[in-house]
Amino acid sequence: MPATKSRNAAASKTAARSSDAHQHDGHCCDHDHGPVCEMSIRRFKKEDFKGLQAAWKSGDIATDDTDSLRAIEKNLKERVNSYRVFVAEAQMLDAKSQRKQGESRVAGGVIVTFDGHRSFVYHLAVHVDFRGVGLGAALLKTCEQQAKLWGARHLRLSARVDDSRAPARAMYGENGWAVDKTIWIYRKTLPK
User: Fold this and answer.
1) Total domain count, the chain
2) Where in the sequence is the domain holding 49, given as residue range(s)?
3) What is the per-residue DSSP string for 127-181?
4) What is the structure's pLDDT at 159?
5) Cβ pair 88, 109 in contact under 8 A
6) Would you state the pLDDT for residue 22?
7) pLDDT value of residue 163
8) Which residues of the chain are under the pLDDT cut of 50?
């Protein structure tokens, strides 16, 4: 995706197929190639919030009041040069005929921030109905492009270590992300 003058990662639209599929015209074989979808990555709009929440819930992403629509809108308004929310809009396609199935919807999303030195990726999630077709990798790539536009040289993301996150961790590695064994993540919840 090319950079834009407004220092935003540009939207993209593409067809994606699960990573275990081989390329063909749909007529050379009759086995299942896994899910196929048409997707676009774009900036968040207010009407995307319910779909984004559904992706977070499907991904078992822990959220709180700082992830409300009100908080997101406030950050987007006040942190114009350091806060972005991107969504993956997707529509499933029949693997053989490439005919659209169902409606296009928000199937994933991510928050990326910039502190003046490095960028941070938060709440990367793809709805379970759309996993395995490249949406997570496309969202990560969009975060990388946005971080470059901001002038960041390093990106950070944190991921849970339980076995349910093994596919996500594998995807991070396949996309050039490495575990940083020099950092421990600590947390503390402050009283309201």
Assistant:
1) 1
2) 12-18+33-174
3) -GGGTTSSHHHHHHHHHHHHHHHHT-SEEEE----SGGGHHHHHHHHHTT----T
4) 86
5) yes
6) 38
7) 84
8) 1-6, 17-28
* DSSP secondary structure letter of residue 9: B
Output the pLDDT for position 144: 96
What is the pLDDT, as a whole number, of residue 149? Answer: 97
pLDDT at res. 164 = 83
Q: Is residue 132 part of a domain?
A: yes
Which helix (H) or strand (E) segment is 51 a member of? helix 49-58
Instruction: Show the tokens assigned to 166.
Output: 């093994």
- Please answer whether residues 1 and 10 qualify as being in contact, where contact means their C-beta atoms are separated by less than 8 angstroms: yes
DSSP label of 66: G
Q: Is 183 among the domain residues?
A: no
Site of tokens 């992830």: 67
Radius of gyration of the chain (CA): 17
